[in-house]
Write a structure and sequence with these properties.
It is a single chain. Helices cover 15% and strands 43% of the residues. It has a 32-stranded parallel sheet that branches.
Length: 501
């Protein structure tokens, strides 16, 4: 008993020390000369505020077997439930490979995956019971994830082990369905009809810590934080480009959640690397819950469509996002803002600084009308007299009045970015004279790019201390912009006299 007590105390001390060392420290950021200094006081209070402590429970003593041919789901779940019932603590596994379906972590429990422990996700979707959740912006019935934290408090999954989601079966299923659906005019529906298993779901929970393990080959999104508060994601390695091209394999999705800390992560995926979301269209506007107060620091991204992406699900709004000391290698964009003309919501107060980028498509990309085939739902005539799925009805419900669906992008700050081998420095466009990008500030940026890019339909768009070296000496195209200030150390700027204001 004394040895177990000492071991419990040691594990708890090490875990608490490691997690508490990641708390946001006061820092000073340089955004250049601004009309009003940024208020980032909220950034000191993000992340999980506590971690589980208590007894140590071995899942092997409940029958978990390191045999990749036999399911250990029930045994591991019994260990988790027993640990929670006894007041909380740590559930451990001996080194080896364990075949599992959906696991549900309970309040007060830390599932410790030590080095040498691998959870192999079952490829049988029947091992993932369905329940109502939110998927790609709408609430609908969907399979559970491999690891689930639903309506819990003070939870952790930690350790140097591996969660291998073995998602190739779901990827192949999607690509087959995608081809069929596109031929029928149903591109907008296939992502919702093709049910795939997420890696980790944290939903309606608080004070959750995900730390140090490797998450790979997820069938769908790797890690979704949904309707939750005060969560920390620290030291995760997410690799979804093993064994093929995984569609919709986002790295980390913060979905209508608040006070989140993401740090020290490495993400290689086939969609958005770190993404902020808040619901889609009518259903997202109904829920109307923002993603806010998120700090992203000391992370590296490789393949994927955005080091930091906001959208395309913007209906509940996205605000107060701070990213600093980041690296993008082969990622599409450093900062990507995307929405659609039926999403609504506002993206605002986005702060990105101290970034090194190489071989990216853009430093900044914005799109208020992203991917129309996916973003807008129209029912083909042959389905008009048929019974259709409930989630189709949700997707087909129009936003009324129409202007409620117009998204807004404003108050965006980028500074101290060094980027090499860039395809196009900037692609920033509003929609028209009445729906502009507003209050963008780019400061102290050095970029080597093939093309300079364009800025259109903006108001108060500012570039200062920017050094831009383009391979073909193409200028930045500036059109339909109002009250813009562009000062370069080195750059060409083309202004259309007929269009500029």
């Amino acid at each position: 008993m004394r040895i177990n007590s000492i071991l419990t105390s040691l594990l708890t001390t090490v875990f608490l020390t490691a997690c508490n060392s990641g708390r946001q420290a006061n820092n000073t950021y340089d955004w250049g000369k601004l009309p009003q200094q940024a208020d980032l006081n909220w950034a000191d209070s993000v992340g999980s505020r506590k971690q589980p402590e208590g007894t140590i429970v071995s899942a092997n003593s409940f029958g978990a077997i390191a045999d990749s041919t036999k399911l250990s789901t029930e045994a591991i779940q019994k260990a988790i439930d027993s640990c929670a019932a006894s007041g909380g603590g740590t559930v451990t596994l001996a080194p080896g490979h364990y075949l599992v379906g959906a696991l549900f972590i309970k309040s007060g429990v830390n599932l410790l995956l030590d080095k040498g422990v691998t959870l192999l996700a079952s490829t049988d979707i029947n091992n993932y019971p369905e329940f109502r959740s939110r998927i790609a912006g709408i609430e609908m019935v969907w399979p559970s994830a491999v690891i689930n934290v639903v309506k819990q408090k003070n939870v952790a999954v930690s350790g140097k082990g591996v969660i291998d989601c073995r998602g190739k079966k779901f990827w192949e299923q999607y690509w087959k369905m995608r081809k069929e659906y596109e031929s029928k005019g149903l591109r907008w529906a296939v992502d919702y009809d093709c049910k795939r298993v997420r890696g980790i779901l944290v939903e309606r929970s608080t004070d959750v810590t995900l730390k140090d393990f490797t998450l790979m080959r997820t069938g769908f999104w790797a890690c979704q934080i949904l309707y939750s508060d005060y969560c920390s994601i620290n030291g995760l390695k997410i690799n979804n480009n093993i064994d093929g091209r995984g569609p919709s394999t986002d790295g980390v999705d913060i979905d209508s959640s608040s006070n989140i800390l993401i740090e020290n992560c490495m993400i290689d995926c086939n969609d958005d690397n770190i993404c902020l979301k808040s619901g889609r269209d009518t259903d997202g506007l109904r829920v109307n819950r923002p993603t806010e107060n998120v700090v992203i620091r000391h992370c590296t991204t490789h393949k994927g469509t955005g080091l930091i992406t906001c959208g395309s699900e913007t209906s509940g709004s996205i605000r107060n996002i701070l990213g600093h000391d980041l690296t993008a290698q082969g990622t599409w964009s450093v900062l990507r803002l995307k929405s659609a003309m039926s999403r609504g919501g506002t993206i605002e107060n986005i702060y990105i600084t101290r970034v090194k980028a190489d071989s990216v498509r853009n430093v900044l990309a914005t799109d208020l009308n992203w991917n129309p085939q996916y973003s807008y739902s129209t029912l083909p005539e042959e389905y008009s007299h048929q019974e259709i799925p409930e989630h189709w009805k949700t997707l087909l419900t129009p936003v009324v009045p129409e202007e409620k669906g117009y998204p807004k992008f404003r108050n965006v700050y980028l500074s101290h970015i060094k980027a090499t081998n860039v395809r196009e420095f900037i692609s920033a466009s509003g929609w028209n004279d009445t729906l502009r990008l507003e209050n963008f500030f780019l400061y102290a940026i050095e970029a080597q790019a093939q093309k300079a890019g364009q800025i259109r339909y903006s108001r108060n768009f500012n570039l200062a201390e920017v050094t831009l070296d383009t391979k073909d000496n193409t200028p930045i195209i500036s059109e339909h912009n109002d009250k813009c200030n562009m000062q370069f150390k080195s750059c060409l700027l083309y202004t259309s006299d007929a269009a500029d204001e």
